[in-house]
């Protein structure tokens, strides 16, 4: 039969499930193989070369890196990125399956399964895999984040300012709460600048350890320290001719700020261990969620550096101050994620739109995006409903984001408490804890090291 195309590999430790699928799936696919565990998965991938792997989320073995299904899904995508992974999960593990899709899995099936839905999902995954193989494609392309301006007065004012400053080389300081889109705005400035044909180099300044700060930003020469086996070009040199974006600049320790100021003033770097001053031609954009003026008054941020990076200040408003943009943003995210996760969605139900508009969104656009992504993955209908959103009515917070944990972190005692609480609530899952706090994974690693957690 023409429809019997493709190879399916089933990895599940339940003998009854393997037997049932061994009867069902050969009616629809050319070849079906089963494995009771991932122990021989690598060898089987090489020999059988499946289009799709139907992968159980939990096995009797233990994987040190975390949940078995997420671990092996990641390994499969590393080894053979063109192979699609469909996760096989119990209802209780749906949250893990959602995380698996964010990491590259095609979809998930909940046990006990519906035969028609299982076959349809595997068929769609097979078709996608075979198209990818014909294109000789690797992993699927990532999603882009173009600037969404909306219609609020605050954003329209920022847009006018950006149109004036983007073509210049003026240094820009972008401020705003976590999740407001400071990095997206920085990319927009670069894209509209005369340097758009060159590279924009982004640096999470808060995630660089003090010992590596100079090496990462300014570079080093061979032999400068024990592990310096070759010359290393720092971020300033990498951005030569283009734009350097220093995110979370407020987290740079005071004693390192003087070194950063010197390079910004001189527009030249001296690599660690070297003597030659290397000129760099950059446009500098910085961002922070902190009140740098307050830090200056407290003696925690150099006043001369503050004025040097603050030629033009753009303050992004929190989402709760631009509520007219929430529904259009939600629809934009819904369309993107529907395409990524193969969902046929046409819009938001009125109750869902009201719930979104009334939300507090302490994590701002990042939290809204995570909420919509999860809703799209879990949706069954043609529109997103209030139930799909999993928002607690009245609190305006999603069940996956804890209110208060996405607040701006200023006080160290409070910061440490929130970091520890995030680790406890996520059972030590660093990615989930970082997302809960609204910071990047490297930044969260730096916080863990800072507080010896």
* Structure class: alpha/beta
Helix content: 40-55%
Rg, please?
Answer: 25 Å
Poorly predicted ranges = 136-144, 398-410
What is the strand arrangement across the widest sheet? Answer: 2-1-3-4-5
Explain this structure to me?
The chain is of the alpha/beta class. The protein contains 19 helices and 16 strands. The chain has helices at 15-24, 41-48, 68-79, 94-102, 115-135, 153-165, 182-191, 213-218, 235-238, 254-266, 292-297, 303-309, 326-340, 350-358, 364-378, 386-389, 412-425, 430-437, 441-450, and strands at residues 7-11, 31-35, 52-56, 84-90, 107-111, 172-175, 200-204, 243-247, 268-270, 277-279, 283-288, 312-315, 347-348, 383-384, 391-392, 397-398. It has a 5-stranded parallel sheet with strand order 2-1-3-4-5, sandwiched between helices. α18 (430-437) packs across α19 (441-450). The longest helix has 21 residues, at 115-135. It is globular, with a radius of gyration of 25 Å.
């Amino acid at each position: 039969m023409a429809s019997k195309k493709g190879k399916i590999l089933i990895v599940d430790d339940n003998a009854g499930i393997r037997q049932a699928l061994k009867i069902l799936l050969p009616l629809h696919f050319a070849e079906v193989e089963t494995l009771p565990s991932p122990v021989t998965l690598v060898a089987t991938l090489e020999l059988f070369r499946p289009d799709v792997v139907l992968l159980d989320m939990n096995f009797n073995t233990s994987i040190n890196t975390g949940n078995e299904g997420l671990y092996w899904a990641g390994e499969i995508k590393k080894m053979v990125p063109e192979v699609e992974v469909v996760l096989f999960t119990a209802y209780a593990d749906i949250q893990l399956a959602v995380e698996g899709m964010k990491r590259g899995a095609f979809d998930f099936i909940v046990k006990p399964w519906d035969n028609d839905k299982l076959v349809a999902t595997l068929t769609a995954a097979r078709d996608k895999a075979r198209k990818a193989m014909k294109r000789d494609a690797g992993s699927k392309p990532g999603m882009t984040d173009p600037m969404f301006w909306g219609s609020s007065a605050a954003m329209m004012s920022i847009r006018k300012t950006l149109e004036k400053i983007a073509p210049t080389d003026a240094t820009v300081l972008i401020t705003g709460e976590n999740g407001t889109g400071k990095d997206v705005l920085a990319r927009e400035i670069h894209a509209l600048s005369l340097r758009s044909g060159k590279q924009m180099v982004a640096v999470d300044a808060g995630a660089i350890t003090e010992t590596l700060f100079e090496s990462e930003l300014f570079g080093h020469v061979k032999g400068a320290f024990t592990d310096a086996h070759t010359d290393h070009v720092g971020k300033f040199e990498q951005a030569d001719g283009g734009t350097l974006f220093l995110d979370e600049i407020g987290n740079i320790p005071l004693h390192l700020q003087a070194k950063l100021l010197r390079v910004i003033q001189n527009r030249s770097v001296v690599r660690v261990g070297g003597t030659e001053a290397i000129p760099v031609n950059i446009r500098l954009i910085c961002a922070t969620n902190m009140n740098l003026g307050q830090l200056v008054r407290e003696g925690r941020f150099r006043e001369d550096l503050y004025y040097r990076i603050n030629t033009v200040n753009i303050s992004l408003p929190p989402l709760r101050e631009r509520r007219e943009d929430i529904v259009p943003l939600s629809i934009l995210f819904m369309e993107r994620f529907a395409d990524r996760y193969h969902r046929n969605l046409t819009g938001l139900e009125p109750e869902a739109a009201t719930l979104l508009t009334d939300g507090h969104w302490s994590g701002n656009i990042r939290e809204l995006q995570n909420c919509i992504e999860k809703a799209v993955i879990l949706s069954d209908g043609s529109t997103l409903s209030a139930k799909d959103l999993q928002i607690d009515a009245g609190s305006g917070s999603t069940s996956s984001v804890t209110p208060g944990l996405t607040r701006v972190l200023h006080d160290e005692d409070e910061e440490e408490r929130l970091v520890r609480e995030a680790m406890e609530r996520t059972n030590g899952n660093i990615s989930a804890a970082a997302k809960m706090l609204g910071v990047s994974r490297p930044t969260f690693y730096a916080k863990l090291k800072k507080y010896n957690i």
